[in-house]
User: What shape does this take?
Amino acid sequence: MSTRLQKGGRLIDRTRSASFTFNGKRLSGFAGDTLASSLLANDQMLVGRSFKYHRPRGIVASGAEEPNALVNMGEGGRFEPNQRVTTTELFDGLTATSQNHWPSLEFDVGVVNNYAARFLPAGFYYKTFMFPRFAWKHVFEPIVRQSAGLGKVPQGPEVDRYEYAYAFCDLFIVGGGIAGLQAALVAGQAGSRVILVEQTAHWGGRAPVDGDVIDGKPADQWVKDTVQALEKLPNVTLRLRTMASGVYDHGYVLADEKVADHTPGDGRPRHRLWRIRAGKIISAQGAIERPLSFAGNDIPGVMLASAVRDYVVNFAVSPGDRTVVVTNNDDAYRTAIALKEAGLEVPAIIDARTSLTGDLPAKAKAMGIRVEAGRAVVKVKGGKRVTGVSIGLQAGEGAVLEDIACDAVAMSGGWSPVVHLWSHCAGKLVWDEAQAHFRPDPKRPPTNQDGAAMVAIVGAANGNLSAAAALADVAAQLGGSAVTAVEVPEAAMLAVWIMPQGAGPALKMKMWLDYQNDVKVSDVQLAAREGYTSVEHTKRYTTLGMATDQGKLSNINGLAVLAGALNDQIPNVGTTTFRPPYTPVPFGALAGESRGEIFQPLRKSPMHGWHEAHNAYLEPVGLWRRAYCYPRAGENHEQAVNREILNARANVGMLDASTLGKIIVKGPDAGRFLDMLYTNVMSNLGIGKCRYGLMCNEQGFLSDDGVVIRLSEDSWLCHTTTGGADRIHGWMEDWLQCEWWDWKVYTANVTEEYAQIAVAGPNARKVLEKLGGMDVSKETLPFMTFADGTLGGLPVRVHRISFSGELSYEIATPASHGLALWEALIEAGQEFGVMPYGTEAMHIMRAEKGFIMIGDETDGTVIPQDLNLGWAISKKKADYLGKRGQERTHLASPDRWKLAGFETLTGGVIPDGSYIIADGHNANGQRNTQGRVTSTYYSPTLKKGIAMGLIKGGMDRLGDVVEFNTVAGSTVKAKVVDPVFYDKDGEKGNA
Amino acid sequence: MKRYSVFAIAKQAMNYHLGWEKAWASPAPKKEYDVVIVGAGGHGLATAYYLGKNHGIKNVAIIEKGWLGGGNTGRNTTIIRSNYLQDPSAAIYDKALQLYEGLSQDLNYNVMFSPRGLLMLAQTHHEVRGYLRTVHANMLQGVTTEYISPARVKELVPIINIDGPRYPVLGALYQPRGGTGRHDAVAWGYARACSAMGMDIIQQTEVTAVRQEGGVVKGVETTKGFIGCKKLGVVVAGHSGQLAEMAGFRLPIEAVALQALVSEPIKPCMDVVVMANTVHGYMSQSDKGEMVIGGGTDGFNNFTQRGSFHHVEETLRALIETFPMISRLKMLRQWGGIVDMTGDRSPILSKTPLGNCFFNCGWGTGGFKAIPGSGWAMAELMAKGEPGPLTEEFSMWRFKEGKFIDESVAAGVAH
Assistant: This one.
């Protein structure tokens, strides 16, 4: 059994206990425990079930590389699936449940897949489940989906919050082991701005566990001293519990800090996402031990040798009473020695190497541990827990020489440097034959914007596995005063990819490579046999390395097996691509503070509060909220809209038009610039005058419209659509900065500087006159002019422009006066019957008047000529944006669909989005069409349906009756009419 | 080719699966072929497959720079739909969807086509009108879609928040026949079927030049020597510009990285595919249980196939807003695919200024769903030498005429 030892445990505090539950069972551990160590202390080795075969799964590792021990954690708004117990700090009240089983962890019906495993090799699903055709969706896929997946589904939104932090530094150092600490100290003392992050809650990494001696001090003491020295440096920032997740182009790094995962509900943000721009990144992430591939290496109780050592030394937890160590290198002997020193039994060390010459094997032997050279674990015995191992010759085919009873196996297949951050931006690797691992190729680093190396890698992550070598590497790369560690000589390791070497297919079907995804040696060999020989094919065919650990334990072993199957060298087979994040990061952390109301910035007009207070129904328009209508008690939206229209037509209405884009264009070349931007001429517009203009993209398609006014000799104000303001401003700057950089023009987007109010209706002038302050008579301020002045004491610019077809004033005032002006107008308008109207009333009134709307009549494929707006295209100008595009054959074709009005024969409304059908079908069997509706409304003014649309032949078709389709499959007959339904002569707007 | 079936698996199981044959051969290139296809992605392999199946042209080589299916075929979000607005798009995408419906049986390879239904959320009034237009257009195109209410959306997607404070769901465009497929399996299934017809798939071989005589293509220079051909089909997505340059002309194509990511796997929680264009994100759940998420394209041209962060951030914000329960799921992996974009965001399937040389490219962000239809249409174009009804609107000269097939009209973002 696994249990807590009576003494020891450098990270736990025995005076502070913490109680937690696992599958409802009440257990307890100590402060400083991880969930993994506390589970083991309570003899809970079995913690989950594998993905495919639902085999029992125990804890294998002690850190971020853990593939098996994932649990559902927390409850309600703090529930989180797939939490690794090895990286979860224990806290009082923690609740966890195991995953991927039914009905229980101990008895899982899904294990039937295990018994059928012989029929379910890699990729079996590509070869079957094909008949009958509909069975995949209705029968097989649901079964596959139910048995796959891991954690439970969170319910509802969560209660915690997240935040971003931004930083920059000269050096961003990842990994708080001795290499990272020393690198930070050297760089920090030299004055560099340094950020050092460590993913666990402790500094020091493996050195203290391994009992290294640095600078004549025990590693623990050296670490403590070094951290103290770093804390005194103001230019060094230290962060524990912070995982560097990804390196992106130009030295951009993301790091995820677990601020309150271990103190949930304390009011702090749960995670903080650091977004860092680093001059250089130094990765000192160490190395990860590899499992060995022997039959039954996935049975709970088989663990990495380093993990066993961690649990004993750090947490005083023994994974087993009797632990067999199996290895191909000297390092694992440290585990045997640690176990022995803790008073635990080590029945044997099984070493694949035939000759053992290192100091550590000698020490183990001297301690009385039985050491077997040239031997292999042929298979592990046990079901939900190891009960023993059968051993044989490593050079053999699996003949069993002896059975040894044990309840744990500590395995070591050598170490692989953590090269993820090096590789995210395409740093290359070399194969180190002696240590049988990939390490960074210093000649091919990831490069930054200047072509210089962006990432450096030091210590064990650079293949320097011992403390002495790691510190020497730091000194070689960063300089600084020499720090030395006592070198413990180690003999060469032996690359062992299959144990025993000559194992047959029956054993290989039991050798796990990827524990979580149930990928075995036989699966990789099958992939190779079937021609999935590219490493990417093998990965995707077998799912090797696609589990939540992303192959941290399985990749190199899998590659080696593949290389073996292909009779090729490992470096020729290559690796799959390392992608961010290094370990999974919560979506919530990546999204930061953006939630609910502040999910995106909310833009409010100065009168926003008034609209809300007057029961406006608000609709999103870009980031704005605009009043769609103002329903009164008992009114639905449609009734409100109709009332608003009729009132504006009969009396006077007010629209908040503040969201309209307003861009000032100023400078000696401003007129010339606008002449290029707009299809018509703007340079000859008189000061004080307004002119409607159209803008096209280079292709000739209409992109925006609005009224341009001339403020002075060298400045114009361009109104754009609400949705177009930022886009058009960007468009202007694009041309000014990239193409016409020598033109003397400035632009400024002043959309939010002004509130703008449309006062429209026969009584509009009376309302303004009531407020008083300036002459707004027809004579002084005729249609399509503007004037600056005051109204009711407020500074205003009054434009005589109309989008409703009524006598209309659009009044701009500085934003801070917007609400005051609005309220003053409402009050002044009371006796004239004023009512506010919303965007829908505006849309309908403009459609009654036959005015086009960008986004309704246009969709990026429509040119001004299609909309009968040829009058707004200058024939005199040599050029404007879109002119050349419009000259192309298809845009000049007489067959284009052009604007017309439509009225149904019954007075009904044509459905939104409807097409005008034509006879016959095209060669692809699609019904021919000859046009479509673009705006369709019930007109309360005319008491019937009205529509605008595009039809082949346009206004030449006046009087024709055409058919629009409906979703019901029927058609609606409509007559082609003039699109101007209201006040055709324009008398009202001019009044 | 030995047929795959449950019986074949049972038989092999008795022998530790040692008797499976290679899914496709890896031959050395011959001196000359009737047709050489450059690019062994889904589109290239499908082109070859339908050249053999529909037109009896089997003396074909497919040349691949890397590993087959290793480009966008293997790095997309596997969405399949045909609810396009414009007639030529709807025709070719629906052809693809129809072929997907029977593809596993046709190829004897389970591509796991899963017609689980696809929703495109309408979250502004403008979007409502846009999708109503698509529904009307689809009806006339013979593509079944419907516009559904928020209540129906909630019924189909219980984990969705339809009452978000910023962009409440106003309705959705629903294509019940849409869904997902297993992307790698599509490439592998076509490759196996091509190989079975005697076609040569030549991986790890890069084309370095296009040889021509008198304005007619004669073959390609490759890293494995010259390979002659009577007809050349170039199907290389993001690298089309480079191949066109080798063939002596320019294409209106630019390459940008499109961002995608997956979560860790969880138990089934969403049966349909949901696309939310207003907030810029789309999501489905794979059979493994991962939430597969697509975002936007980087705002600059590049070939890195790397993930960048700014789109991931925006996409996840949007999706947490739409599906609040995903906040405590974790991002497992992010990546970028290089998409080849044309001026109108629609593909090019076209003859070229070089005789007997044909290009199929420009699928942009929408290529996976088109693979079978694209291959079918391209095969027809290459076999006959002239465009058929599915390809005639997709000529590369349409940009010169201004005859765009603009789908951005319907979907503001990725499609």
